[in-house]
Write a structure and sequence with these properties.
Elements: E1 2-4, E2 7-10, E3 13-14, H1 15-22, E4 26-30, H2 31-48, E5 52-57, H3 64-73, E6 76-79, H4 82-90, E7 98-100, H5 107-116, E8 119-122, H6 128-134, E9 139-143, E10 150-151, H7 170-182, E11 187-191, E12 195-196, H8 203-222, E13 226-230, H9 248-265, E14 272-275, H10 279-282, E15 286-297, E16 301-305, H11 314-318, E17 324-326, E18 334-340, E19 351-357, E20 365-368, E21 389-394, E22 397-402, H12 407-411
Parallel strand pairs: 4-21, 5-6, 5-14, 6-7, 7-8, 8-9, 9-11, 10-12, 11-13, 13-14, 16-18
Antiparallel strand pairs: 1-2, 2-3, 4-15, 15-16, 15-20, 17-20, 18-19, 21-22
Helix pairs in contact: 2-3, 2-9, 7-8, 8-9
The chain binds ligand LLP.
């Protein structure tokens, strides 16, 4: 986001114009920023390991326009469900350009996953016999839980380690691959997801080392040549002003260094190195523009906006911080204020105390930063407050990439039995 005098711009488009054109609340994504984020990350990793590929975890922001930008940059798709496989297909990605990393799969998930011919990434050894009942994946991996997890968001998002629901226990990994090999599966990869929003560069080589020891031993013992090893997502971004950002070059250089050393130590045929980040690509490229509707002076002074916990779930769900700007007023005197949405829940009071411009008033526009990842994707309908629109900005151009929901969307899948119509 740029600022000229007291006016904010996303790309080259004034925030005011975006609010007038599309209404509020509205999610806005900066295409150039997504591309820059991707290129910076790709360069950092491929420099140290040329046979490198990213898969974009679409769960973070599943708008087809956003996924298509990352596809154009060269990314595959990491899909958490069959519907995300279908989303990949819609933007022209299928087969081995898609990694299916669902967990606790149903039989229907398994059947559709097999039919789609994607890379099958199994979350547990117990799923393999169920997969084999329906067919054999052409290429598969197991998601290994190496025993550690990390996240700046907190325990909620630490999706590896002993308290996580994900991944194969290290003691089962050899058995899992042996079972798959004996069942006649020929092509293998390996996978982990080390946590989400990690800004400690040293964690990446550490966790890579753990995974590679488990996989190296397995490969050696079973004579498996892993075609790829996927280090997952987790590349973090800072949310608070002044928070340190991830030293991406150090993370990439050190992780690739450990990777290469372990490949040599275990005598593995060098696999493709893969990662499937999301937040790093889209997190800081997304904003929510909202409007102040009313201000009340009660026990506290509270600013009421149209951005509620149903628009952006992260603060209410994880206690996450999102920085807020007030259009036209950033240089004014500040006071500690509360800020909330319009829902009938007190978790909707998602900023309890924040230094905001004291002159903030009805009609002002607020801009919430770092909303591109797990923002719209985790929004929901509640209290009849429906999901916002999504807009893509590319330089001076702007495009509506998802319409705002209407009352018809709220009731579209409902039905009224005849006896209730009287
Ligand atoms: N791969 C897998 C298998 C994942 O489960 C995830 C995210 C990713 C990749 C992408 O991770 P990233 O690069 O974005 O860290 N809702 C939480 C984050 C949950 C992460 C879920 N898995 C939040 O708002 O912080």
């Amino acid at each position: 986001m740029k600022r000229s005098n007291s006016e904010f711009f996303i790309g080259d488009v004034p925030v005011k114009l975006l609010a007038e054109t599309y209404g509020t609340p509205v999610y806005v994504y900066d295409e150039q920023k997504i591309r820059e984020n991707y290129r910076r990350a790709f360069k950092a990793f491929s420099k140290h390991y040329p046979d490198f590929r990213f898969f974009y975890a679409v769960k973070a922001c599943n708008n087809p326009a956003i996924a298509s930008i990352l596809k154009q940059e060269g990314a595959g798709v990491d899909a958490a469900s069959v519907n995300e496989i279908l989303l990949a297909k819609k933007i022209g990605l299928g087969g081995e350009n898609v990694m299916f990393s669902g967990n606790f799969l149903s039989d229907d998930d398994i059947k559709s996953g097999l039919e789609s011919g994607v890379i099958f990434n199994l979350d547990d050894i117990s799923i393999l016999p169920r997969v084999l009942k329906f067919g054999k994946p052409e290429i598969m991996s197991f998601r290994v839980n190496p025993g550690y997890g990390k996240s700046n968001v907190g325990e909620f998002v630490t999706n590896a380690g002993p308290n996580a629901k994900f991944g194969v226990h290290p003691d089962d990994v050899l058995k899992a691959y042996r079972m798959a090999k004996e069942a006649g599966i020929k092509r293998f990869g390996a996978h982990m997801m080390p946590g989400s929003c990690i800004t400690d560069a040293d964690y990446f080589p550490f966790i890579t080392g753990l995974l590679m020891d488990i996989i190296g031993k397995t490969g050696k013992e079973l004579g498996i040549n892993f075609e790829f090893i996927d280090l997952g997502g987790g590349l973090g971004i800072p949310y608070k002003p002044g928070e340190e950002s991830l030293d991406l070059d150090a993370a990439a250089e050190k992780a690739a260094g450990v990777f290469k050393a372990k490949v040599a130590e275990y005598g593995l045929k060098p696999p493709r190195l893969m990662m499937e980040p999301a937040r790093y690509f889209v997190g800081n490229a997304g904003y929510i523009i909202g409007r102040v509707h009313s201000i009340k002076n009660s026990y506290k002074k509270i600013v009421g906006t149209d951005i509620g916990m149903s628009t952006l779930a992260r603060p209410a769900m994880y206690g996450s911080y999102h920085h807020i700007y007030v259009e036209g007023k950033e240089d004014e005197k500040r006071e500690k204020l509360g800020l909330c949405g319009q829902l009938c829940e007190n978790t909707d009071f998602w900023v309890k105390e924040r230094e905001l411009p004291a002159s903030i008033t009805e009609g002002d526009l607020i801009i919430v930063e770092n909303a591109g990842a797990y923002g719209y994707a985790m929004s929901y309908q509640y209290n009849g407050r429906l999901r916002p629109a999504e807009v893509l900005v590319n330089g001076q151009s702007h495009y509506l990439i998802r319409k705002r929901e209407l009352f018809e969307d709220m009731i579209k899948n409902t039905d009224l039995p005849d006896y209730l119509k009287k």
